[in-house]
Amino acid sequence: VQLVESGGGLVQAGGSLRLSCLASGFTFDAYAIAWFRQAPGTEYEGVSGINSDGNTYYLDSVKDRFTISIDTAKNTVYLQMNSLKPEDTAVYYCAADNRPTSGWYDRWYYDFWGQGAQVTVSS
Q1: Nearest of 15, 9, 37, 8 to residue 83 by alpha carbon
Q2: What is the pLDDT of residue 75?
Q3: CA distance 52 to 56
Q4: Cα(20)–Cα(94) distance, rounded to whole angstroms?
Q5: Largest CA distance in the chain
Q6: DSSP string, 41-59
């Protein structure tokens, strides 16, 4: 299994970005997939999760701004990020597992991780 993130970059506050996570070799019969982020000097933080039960989850600070979605035909998970703020600046990681979970925010749960994509929001 290989997860590859793309779509990061530099954007002004109030702008938008869409991150993509291509999951090669991953089976989408049952899954939990999440986006985490890590800013310099901080711990990993769960941003959003989606599982094969159809449930989606969000960190409180990104609700109503970020949307997670999945296109299983393309083996790709997306994170649409709108109204970006400087505090959203971080490296964003895609994580996946073949066991659905409501504990989506637990970084230790996931077997597979991407290499990360830098998101920088300027003020």
Answers
A1: 15
A2: 96
A3: 10
A4: 9
A5: 41
A6: TS--EEEEEEETTS-EEE-
What is the CB neighbour count within 10 angstroms for residue 9? 13
Q: Rounded distance, CA 80 to CA 105, Å?
A: 18
Name the residue with tokens 């997939």: 33
Q: Which two tokens stand for residue 40?
A: 């310099």
- 43 token code pair: 């711990």
Residue at 75: amino acid letter: N
Give CA separation, 75 vs 1, 50, 53, 98, 114, in Å. 11, 14, 17, 14, 14
Lookup: tokens for 76:
């790709």
pLDDT in tens, 56-98: 999 999 999 999 999 999 999 999 999 999 999 999 999 999 9
8 near 92, Cβ under 8 Å?
Answer: yes
Under 8 Å between Cβ of 13 and 86: yes
